[in-house]
């Protein structure tokens, strides 16, 4: 079996996961320190309060946070390009910037949909405009200020 393509990809993925783990572990340490500090403040107000029985609650993901990031990424891609781009070209840049699988059709299809939604939203806000069609694709550019 030829490993010239597989092994470097696996090594790169492992390195990325190890980096994600280090980041997550550092965040856990910060959260534990914040929790200890908050417990200390609670005990200053009520020394008899049992902070150990306070039940944890889960936060819901902030709605729209991913959409806003995609909108910014779309505008940034158009600014950097300096020329009109298709949603597929913008999606390709977004995939590469996020370190996603550039060969996956499913990833590309999902990203094209997300980019298209962001472009339509930006068009409604007057930030971008559709220039012309190229086959089935539309070229997008930043709207003139």
Protein described:
This protein has two domains: 6-53; 65-142, Orthogonal Bundle (Arc Repressor Mutant, subunit A), CATH 1.10.10.10. Helix content is 61%, strand content 10%. The chain is built from four helices and three strands; from the N terminus they run H-H-E-H-H-E-E. The chain has helices at 6-45, 65-81, 87-97, 105-124; strands at residues 85-86, 128-134, 137-142. A hairpin with a 2-residue loop joins strand 2 (128-134) and strand 3 (137-142).
Gyration radius from CA atoms, angstroms = 23 Å
Bin the strand percentage: 5-15%
Number of domains: 2
CATH C-level name of the largest domain: Mainly Alpha
Task: Give the strand tally.
Answer: 3
Identify the strand order in the major beta sheet.
Answer: 1-3-2
C-alpha termini separation: 56 Å
Mean pLDDT: 87
Q: What level of helicity do the residues show?
A: 55-70%
Structural class, by secondary structure, is mainly alpha
Note poorly predicted spans: none
Q: Which shape, going by the Cα principal axes? A: flat
Helix and strand succession? HHEHHEE
- CATH hierarchy: architecture of the largest domain: Orthogonal Bundle
Largest sheet: 3 strands, antiparallel
The total of helices stands at 4
The CATH topology of the largest domain corresponds to Arc Repressor Mutant, subunit A
In CATH terms, the superfamily of the largest domain is: Winged helix-like DNA-binding domain superfamily/Winged helix DNA-binding domain
């Amino acid at each position: 079996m030829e490993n010239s393509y597989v092994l470097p990809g696996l090594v790169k993925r492992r390195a990325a996961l190890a980096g994600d783990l280090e980041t997550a572990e550092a965040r856990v340490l910060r959260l534990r320190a914040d929790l200890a500090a908050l417990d200390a403040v609670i005990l200053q107000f009520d020394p008899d309060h049992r902070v150990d029985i306070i039940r944890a609650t889960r936060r819901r993901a902030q709605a729209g946070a991913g959409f806003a990031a995609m909108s910014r990424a779309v505008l940034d891609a158009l600014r950097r390009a300096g020329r009109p781009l298709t949603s597929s070209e913008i999606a390709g840049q977004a995939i590469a910037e996020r370190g996603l699988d550039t060969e996956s059709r499913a990833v590309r299809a999902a990203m094209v949909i997300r980019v298209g939604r962001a472009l339509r939203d930006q068009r409604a806000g007057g930030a971008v405009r559709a220039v012309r069609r190229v086959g089935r694709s539309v070229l997008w550019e930043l709207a003139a200020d």
